[in-house]
Amino acid sequence: MTKRIVVDPITRIEGHLRIEVIVDENNVIKDAFSSSTLWRGLETIVRNRDPRDAGFLMQRICGVCTFSHYKAGIVAVEKALGITPPLNAILTRTLMNIALFLHDHAVHFYTLHGLDWCDITSALTANEKKASELAFKYTKNPIYTGEDELKAVKERVSNFVKQGSLGPFANAYWGHKTYRFTPEQNLIVLSHYLRLLEVQRVIAQMMAIFGAKNPHPQSLTVGGVTCIMDITDPSRLGEWLTKYKEVADFVNRAYWADIIMAAEAYKGEDSVLKGCGLTNFLSFQEIQVGPDEWLLSSGIVKNGDLSKVYEVDTDKITEDATHSWYKDNGPLHPYDGETNPNYTGFVDGVSIGIDGKEVKTPLINENGKYSWIKSPRYDGEPMEVGPLASVVVGYAKKNPYITAVVDEFLAKTGLTPAHLFSTLGRTAARAIECKVIADYGIKAFNALVENLKTDKNTCAPYSIDKEKSYKGYFIGNVPRGMLSHWVRIENGVIKNYQAVVPSTWNAGPIDQNGKKGPYEMSLIGTKIQDLTQPLEIIRHIHSFDPCIACAVHVMDTKGNKLSEYKVQPSASGLR
Ligand code: NFE
Ligand code: MG
């Protein structure tokens, strides 16, 4: 007999995500459904606006990857108008992008995903001296793991416990059988977790040096950048460099070391090494470090076959809304995409409650529409995007930066390339991408300094002809994967705008052909140890770093009521 488990909301992500799974008599997941339960949006808000404002408005899609949608909105309009920004502008944008990637990846591993790997309560039983010595096993020069530092960390968290509360660490599945770190390993990660909170501030400052503020920087403009006083001021450049080095140091001596340690500790945990289910990967070049050089590569790997990489053809991108709460079903190419809501709600059903007993619960109607997220497809096929895709594509293409770091990871952990197609691989891939940027992002800085010696251009001139129609797009990679923005301009204003976002690719529901996307596929086949504590579900889903604000990003322009629905956070079947 099958049972249904509902996890809603998935916490420690951005936005509102619900996961439902159906397990068999052995608690193995046989089917899975991913649903975004909140709708918002920006694609309609930019219609009839001045195209020069698209980037400023589109960056409000999200409070996390704000720079991504800002740059995408600016570049899509530049492409439409036929503008090539000067190299100084391109490289300055890269310096800001480097800050974004370093921020999102490090924050994801520690603040959002770390507690799926690290059992805080176990850390409190660790021997600090042993832990301090152990840290040298994973890096030659560990950081924040001195015996005294670890003692202070233990004391700090123990004080929470003494007050009868774990504070920010309350309500997790502590003691779960699938946690694999020793108490000492847990203490090392806990120390880095707390230190990351300070490093996060430094990275935000990195963004603000050229972006004026963070989040939602302000210095990109159609044609180039406006921060000319900052990029031509050696002290501002020096400030960026100092912060970059500090963060790169944390990435190498803490994050990277912890990932190597996690791979060693979790090698025997089947639930994290279980295959992805879907092994199609799609990625696009990003982090431009010179006139014609990028750190991340474009391409497609199909069915996990690393021997062949296909080129990306943007005509083959579509969005399907068959099971999404929109009027159309699609699939439509984003130039012709539509954004008209059609909320159909949930159906009555039964799930397993937090006490392990059956309870009446509103359930996803998998035969109808069940998510605010659409289902992007490439040539009709679902694709995983994100750091795992960028690492798989880069490795298959023999990108020298990716290859160097992947080879180091495999050599240090004894894992094989096939192991990358897993939840552990996805989590490691984010660290691999982060290390590539921490180790080689300096190339963009050096190229900018060099170029500024002979070229002070920061913005390309252009004009908009109101009699003409234009269309253009941005395509590139952002921290959670491949992002594209598509704009049509008529009569000098935006006629249609569509964003096809990384978390949409990964979290979307079933398409018209019944094909599932990466979230749903990654869950199928997982055995859940304890139905009342589905840590395995959360770990798989967190490994994608969901951002549901990005994934949905649609709303009415005038604040009109579009549909009405009730959220039932206290229903006993929900977690
Ligand atoms: Ni809201 Fe985003 C990134 C974009 S996620 S965080 O990275 O675009 O899909
Ligand atoms: Mg969209």
TrEMBL record:
It comes from the Bacteria. One of its GO terms (cellular component) is cell envelope. It is an enzyme of class 1 (oxidoreductase). Pfam families: NiFeSe_Hases. InterPro entries: Ni-dep_hyd_lsu, Ni-dep_hyd_lsu_Ni_BS, NiFe-Hase_large, NiFe/NiFeSe_hydrgnase_LSU. Ni(2+) binds at residues 65, 547. The keyword Iron applies. Its EC number is 1.12.99.6. One of its GO terms (molecular function) is nickel cation binding. SUPFAM superfamilies: HydB/Nqo4-like. Keywords: Iron, Magnesium, Metal-binding, Nickel, Oxidoreductase. Fe cation binds at residues 65, 550. Mg(2+) binds at residues 43, 62, 553. Its cofactor is Fe cation; Ni(2+). It is found in: Cell envelope. Belongs to the [NiFe]/[NiFeSe] hydrogenase large subunit family. Heterodimer of a large and a small subunit. This is Hydrogenase 2 large subunit. It comes from Helicobacter equorum.
